[in-house]
Design goal:
This is COG1836. Helix content is 63%, strand content 6%. It is mainly alpha-helical. A hairpin with a 4-residue loop joins strand 3 and strand 4.
C-alpha cells in the first residue's frame, strides 16, 4: 500500500508539474526510505506535507505572479531540503530503539509544513510582510524573513494539523507529545524565518528591489547575506533543529 501511494503521488506530481523529474526521483527515494524505516503511518504524515504544499502553491496563482506550465513548482533541492531530515530521523528510529523518534519525526514534518503553509498563505496577505527581526520594516512578498499575521496563524494551524494526524495514525499516544510536536514544529517555522532574514543570501537590484534570484535583476547592486546559505539550506537547518529539539524535550 505504501509503495502504491508513493507511485500515485509520483505520477500526479510529474503530470501536474508539482515536481521536476529530479524532484519526483528524490521524493520517491525519500518516501521509500521513510516507509521502510518508519512504516506506513510515517509515510502518510510526510505525504500530507507534500500534498498540502503542492495544493497551496498554486492557490491564488494570479496574486503570486505564478505562470503555470513553464516549469515545475519544486525541484530536487527543495525536496531534499524538506524531506531528508525527516527521513534521517526515520532511519535512526530503526537503528536506535528506545528514543521518542516519532515525536522528533512529527515535529520535523510539522516544521516543514508550517513554513510552507506560512509562505504560501502569507503571499496572499493584503498587508505587506514585515521582517521578523525588524517588524517595523516591510519586505516584498515571498522574501525569506518576511512574516504576516495570516501566514503566521496558518503556519501554527498547519503544525497542529500534522501533529494531530500523526497522533491519529499512532505515531504518538500522549497528549503532551502531540502538543510538543506541534509547538516545536511551529518554532522551526520561526527559526526558518529568522535564518532567512539574517543569514540567507539576497540581492538588491538597481531599482532598490530585494530579490532572492539575481537573474531577475536588470542591474545587480549589492549581495546581502552569506552566498552559500540559500533557501534550501535554511529549510534543512530549521527542520533539523525542530527534530532535534523535539527529541531532546521528549527525553527530558
Amino acid at each position: 500500500m505504501g509503495l502504491a501511494l508513493i507511485a500515485a503521488l509520483a505520477v500526479v506530481s510529474a503530470t501536474k508539474r508539482y515536481l521536476s523529474a529530479g524532484g519526483v526521483a528524490a521524493a520517491a527515494v525519500i518516501g521509500v526510505g521513510v516507509l521502510v524505516a518508519g512504516g506506513l503511518g510515517w509515510l502518510i504524515v510526510l505525504m500530507a506535507f507534500t500534498v498540502l504544499g503542492s495544493a497551496l502553491t498554486r492557490t491564488g496563482a494570479d496574486l503570486k505572479g505564478i505562470i503555470s506550465g513553464l516549469k515545475a513548482d519544486r525541484g530536487a533541492k527543495n525536496v531534499l531540503a524538506n524531506g531528508l531530515p525527516p527521513m534521517i530521523i526515520a532511519v535512526a528510529s530503526s537503528l536506535i530503539a528506545g528514543l521518542p523518534w516519532s515525536v522528533a519525526f512529527t515535529a520535523a514534518v510539522a516544521a516543514a509544513t508550517s513554513d510552507t503553509v506560512s509562505t504560501e498563505i502569507g503571499m496572499l496577505s493584503r498587508s505587506p510582510p514585515r521582517r521578523i527581526t525588524r517588524p517595523w520594516r516591510t519586505v516584498p512578498p515571498g522574501i525569506s524573513g518576511g512574516v504576516s499575521a495570516i501566514g503566521t496563524l496558518a503556519g501554527l494551524l498547519a503544525a497542529g494539523a500534522i501533529s494531530l494526524l500523526a497522533a491519529a495514525l499512532g505515531l504518538m499516544t500522549e497528549p503532551s507529545q502531540v502538543v510538543l510536536a506541534a509547538l516545536v514544529g511551529f518554532v522551526g517555522n520561526l527559526v526558518d524565518s529568522m535564518l532567512g532574514d539574517l543569514a540567507e543570501v539576497k540581492y538588491k537590484c538597481g531599482a532598490g528591489a530585494l530579490v532572492e534570484d539575481p537573474s531577475t535583476c536588470d542591474q545587480l547592486v549589492e549581495r546581502i547575506g552569506h552566498p552559500v546559505i540559500n533557501n534550501h539550506t535554511v529549510n534543512a537547518i530549521a527542520i533539523s533543529i525542530a527534530g532535534v529539539l523535539a527529541l531532546l524535550l521528549s527525553m527530558i
